[in-house]
Design brief:
Layout lengths: L2 H11 L5 E5 L5 H9 L4 E4 L2 H10 L5 E4 L17 E5 L2 H13 L4 E6 L13 H8 L2 H4 L4 E7 L8 H18 L8 E3 L6 H6 L4 E4 L1 H4 L8
Parallel strand pairs: 1-2, 1-8, 2-3, 3-4, 4-5, 5-6, 6-7
Length: about 220
């Protein structure tokens, strides 16, 4: 199956209200262009400097999403062009994004990452930390970031009941914080292995890599 036919297949399985982020991390520019020529315009990367190189080289109507864990000292490399930052998990990071966005006279859309998995390795805010952040005066003073929704990653397990429970919990939090942030619209959850479950539980954005591009090749990194 080609990248374009993989894309077509996945798009047929997604409702119209769900946005597909093609996870192109570690993939060469030729593979991204093949997906681009198949109509895909939103790509997700997990390393800022790799994303910046691809932004320089590839068509300028691509929307680049930063989907990996963000180091504060690297924000400056993507502040000029990034379309959405998925994994904001602290006020310190949000403040740095605001500072760098201001330098480029931009407002950068962000998702707050919520820890829903039972794995300690996953990043994210718990529900209490999330509410403290969005309820603070310091948060309201940030004028160059816009929180457009939430993101979460389920536990890496074959137990579909557990995955559904975690996605359902994130949707519950999403619905609750609409009282404080009524404009939020993005619920980013679901990857190649579990995106259909995520969509059933209310996801509006899925991040899919291997089902589009094939298994990742780390040998050239």
């Amino acid at each position: 199956m080609s990248i374009q036919s993989n894309l077509e297949h996945i798009n047929r399985t997604l409702p119209n209200h769900v946005t597909l982020v093609a996870v192109s991390k570690t993939k060469p520019e030729e593979s991204i262009l093949e997906a681009y020529n198949g109509g895909q315009r939103i790509f997700g990367e997990n390393k800022i400097q790799e994303m910046a190189r691809k932004w320089e080289a590839l068509p300028k109507d691509i929307e680049w999403h930063m989907i990996g864990h963000v180091q504060r000292n690297k924000v400056k490399y993507m502040a000029e062009f990034v379309s959405l930052i998925h994994g904001v998990d602290s006020f310190k990071l949000l403040r740095e994004i605001n500072k760098q966005a201001q330098k480029h006279n931009r407002t950068i859309p962000c998702l707050l990452q919520v820890h829903i998995a039972e794995e300690e390795t996953k990043f994210g805010l718990d529900e209490k930390e999330l509410n403290q952040l969005i309820g603070s005066k310091e948060f309201r003073d940030l004028t160059h970031v816009e929180i457009v929704g939430l993101m979460g990653m389920a536990t890496f397990t074959k137990d579909q009941t557990q995955i559904k429970k975690e996605f359902r919990y994130l949707k519950h939090i999403f619905d609750k914080i609409k009282d404080t942030l009524p404009h939020i619209s993005v619920l980013s959850m679901g990857m190649s292995g579990d995106y259909q479950l995520a969509v059933e539980e209310g996801s509006t954005m899925v991040r899919i890599g291997s089902s589009i591009f094939g298994a990742r090749d780390y040998s050239h990194i």
